[in-house]
Design brief:
Radius of gyration of chain A: 19 Å
Shape of chain A: globular
Distance between the termini of chain B: 29 Å
CATH architecture of one domain in chain A: 3-Layer(aba) Sandwich
CATH architecture of the largest domain in chain B: 3-Layer(aba) Sandwich
Shape of chain B: globular
Distance between the termini of chain A: 44 Å
Number of domains of chain B: 2
Number of helices of chain A: 11
CATH topology of one domain in chain A: Rossmann fold
Mean pLDDT of chain B: 96
Largest sheet of chain A: 5 strands, parallel
Low-confidence stretches of chain A: 1-9
Oligomer: heterodimer
Number of strands of chain A: 7
CATH class of one domain in chain A: Alpha Beta
Mean pLDDT of chain A: 95
Number of strands of chain B: 14
Strand content of chain B: 15-25%
Radius of gyration of chain B: 20 Å
Strand order of the largest sheet of chain A: 1-2-3-7-6
Strand order of the largest sheet of chain B: 3-2-4-5-7-6-12
Chain lengths: 333, 334
């Protein structure tokens, strides 16, 4: 097994400034969206809980920008970033989180189950590792129907404790299916450091099945994107599945209500990631350093996105709840 | 029985199922099958012999021994344009796949607000009597029937099995079909040649009668029919009603039968506690209460793990003699 080597610091000539700026916009959109979700929770305006993606934005964006709209993704309980990166609109996302009729699932799915067929999103999944076989099945369809679509399965390192993930990888490799397993290692299985739960090498687990496996800095969107592009292209050509291990960090708690976290991770660690390893700072810094943007352009993007987020949340807050008769609809097709 | 008289060709239960699958594989290129040892081996029960020769290993797929994995793969394939038929060798393995069935397949249409569909069939087996002991003998159809979003089929005759299988494959929902493994070769019955389907959610009266209703599922239909013969000898006319599908359930036919007979016994091979018999009895109690002349009685599998020893295993499953005795009591003939 020869893992694909990824370049650490150079831009690819075929990705122009516009695309990097677009990726910055997408990453900032996810962050602004999630910060707003946190505010909604704290203001008791959102039913239930949500699992914030802040800190991990470069992975969803770097990977999804390597996909077409028709390509498939499956997502996780920490899935808002994946949905947005794949093209979901923020107003209908907020509406779903608030349980409103205008939401992507008429308010029946909520934060952990957003699905959007139009953007190839087969759904976020609240069972850890639960979508690994579904993504593999989508790749099976692609191969059988010959439509060239690739499926990406996002999951956290906690899912490496689930047997289903390995059953899926085994079948994907046996049948050379166009699926990419993207493991976001944010270090914590809920409230437990992954070193307490995960024996051996994470990457070697996929390599044991013969999957092409790469490890990337999940805070560096350029590195993520470059690796994703190679693996997607490879899968599309029929060369089989791959495993991407993305090292990252979850800035917030396991969910919005997980505030007092010092019993499982030190504040210094959180501060280090936020200060020194922030994916948005990395990209904006690189854009400015390479004269592709200046502080004004970055501010302009952020201002525009913040305005959109504000408008979207206002829309969702004012949108009506589903009518009672909706409760019995869609049990059966 | 509602079998057309015109065509008297007879098939075994297993061959009727195979014929349904072969016809649907021929009719629709999106249909494919996957499971353990289903291709060259034709399943451990040899029910699918010959299918791989006609349809090839791309459409009749031998999988690793990974029930959750290939069930989940089928869910994903169903969501994206295919129509998989999953084979789970023994119903007892349902515990292995339950997350993919109950949390994924059953809920995806609803959770997505009706956008995504999961048109898949899950075939598995039920039924004791094979001396296969506690982990290869259970009838777990109640597990599936408990979950909204799934349809559940328990055919009793070759004719029903074929027609219901074809409807299940054409259905846009996840449909679980539980086949009694003891019937594959031993039960034979008329199956007309050519195309027909039986809609899901329509019960069938397997024998008409006026004095007591025996509601029976899957192989218990034969137990009920045997009991009805014994009852006939002492002047009691039993009506045998086969729901054929547990979800959707044809409540109307059940209730109408009991309104006519005023007495009912439910016979089912699942565990009696919290099972199919309880659900069906409650439907009758709710909707035919004022017509009843006796309490509704339930006869399910004994509430014990299925034992290996034939001397013990046979005690755990309802039999014709037991149904006969119970019916006599309800009809005041004891």
């Amino acid at each position: 097994m020869s893992p694909i080597k990824t370049k650490k610091s150079h831009s690819r000539s075929d990705i122009d400034r516009e695309q990097w700026l677009h990726m910055y916009e997408q990453m900032f959109k996810i962050r602004a969206f999630e910060e707003q979700v946190n505010e909604l929770y704290q203001g008791a305006k959102m039913p239930g809980l949500a699992h914030l993606y802040i800190g991990e934005e470069a992975i969803a964006v770097g990977v999804c920008e390597a996909l077409t709209t028709e390509d498939y993704i499956t997502s996780t309980h920490r899935g808002h970033g994946h949905c947005l990166a794949k093209g979901a609109s923020i107003d209908r996302m907020f509406a779903e989180l608030l349980g409103k009729e205008a939401g992507y699932c008429h308010g029946k799915g909520g934060s952990m189950h957003i699905a959007d067929q139009d953007t190839g999103n087969l759904g976020a999944n609240a069972i850890v590792g639960g979508s690994s076989a579904i993504a593999t099945g989508a790749a099976f369809s692609s191969k059988r129907l010959g439509n060239g679509r690739v499926a990406v399965c996002f999951f956290g390192e906690g899912a490496l404790g689930q047997g289903l993930v390995y059953e899926s990888m085994n079948m994907a490799q046996l049948w050379k299916l166009p699926v990419i397993y993207v493991c976001e290692n944010n270090l914590y299985n809920e409230y437990t450091h992954h070193s307490e739960t995960t024996a051996g090498s994470l990457k070697a687990r996929a390599e044991a099945f013969g999957l092409t496996a790469v490890e990337v800095d999940g805070q560096n969107v350029r590195e993520v994107h470059e690796a994703a592009q190679r693996l997607v292209e490879r899968a599309r050509k029929g060369e089989g599945p791959a495993f991407m291990l993305c090292n990252t960090y979850r800035y917030h708690g396991h969910h919005v209500g997980d505030i007092a976290r010092e019993y499982y991770r030190p504040k210094e660690e959180e501060l280090m990631w936020k200060t020194d390893r922030d994916p948005l700072k990395f990209l904006s810094g690189w854009l400015i350093e390479n004269q592709m943007a200046d502080a004004g352009i970055i501010e302009q993007i952020e201002g525009q996105v913040s305005g959109e987020v504000e408008a979207a949340v206002t829309f969702a807050l004012n949108a009506p709840f589903p009518a009672p008769e909706e409760v019995r609809k869609h049990v059966y097709a | 029985m509602s079998t057309p008289e015109a065509n008297r060709r007879e098939l075994t239960f297993g061959d009727a199922i195979k014929e349904a699958l072969a016809e649907e594989l021929r009719r629709d290129a999106r249909v494919f099958m996957l499971g353990e040892d289903i291709a060259e081996a034709g399943t451990t029960f040899k029910v699918l012999n010959g299918l791989v020769e006609e349809f090839g290993t791309e459409r009749v797929i031998d999988t690793p021994i990974s029930e959750p994995g290939f069930t989940g793969l089928a869910v994903g394939a169903a969501m994206t344009g295919m129509r998989p038929v999953v084979d789970i060798m023994f119903g007892d393995f349902s515990g292995l796949i339950m997350d993919q069935v109950a949390n994924q397949a059953a809920k995806i249409h609803y959770m997505s607000g009706g956008k995504l569909k999961v048109p898949m069939v899950l075939r598995t087996t039920m039924g004791a009597g094979r001396r296969s002991a506690a982990q290869h003998s259970q009838s777990l159809h109640a597990w599936y029937s408990h979950i909204p979003g799934l349809k559940v089929v328990v055919p009793s005759t070759p004719y029903d099995a074929k027609g219901l299988m074809k409807s299940a494959i054409r259905d846009d929902n996840p449909v679980v079909i539980l086949e009694d493994k003891m019937m594959y070769k031993t039960v034979k019955g008329p199956v007309p040649e050519g195309e027909y389907t039986i809609p899901l959610g329509v019960a069938d009266i397997k024998r008409e009668g006026t004095d007591i209703t025996l509601v029976a599922t899957s192989s218990m239909v034969y137990v009920a029919l045997d009991a009805a013969k014994l009852l006939d000898e002492i002047g009691i006319q039993a009506e045998v009603v086969d729901p054929r599908t547990l979800v959707p359930l044809d409540k109307k036919t059940l209730v109408e039968s009991v309104k006519k007979t005023s007495r009912a016994i439910i016979v089912d091979e699942g565990y009696e506690q919290y099972g199919v018999t309880a659900e069906l009895a409650s439907v009758i109690a709710d909707e035919a209460f004022y017509y009843l002349d006796a309490p509704v009685k339930r006869m399910g599998a004994m509430n014990v793990p299925i034992p290996f020893s034939p001397a013990l295993e046979d005690l755990t499953i309802p039999n014709a003699k037991g149904v006969f005795e119970m019916a006599k009591i309800l009809c005041n003939k004891s």
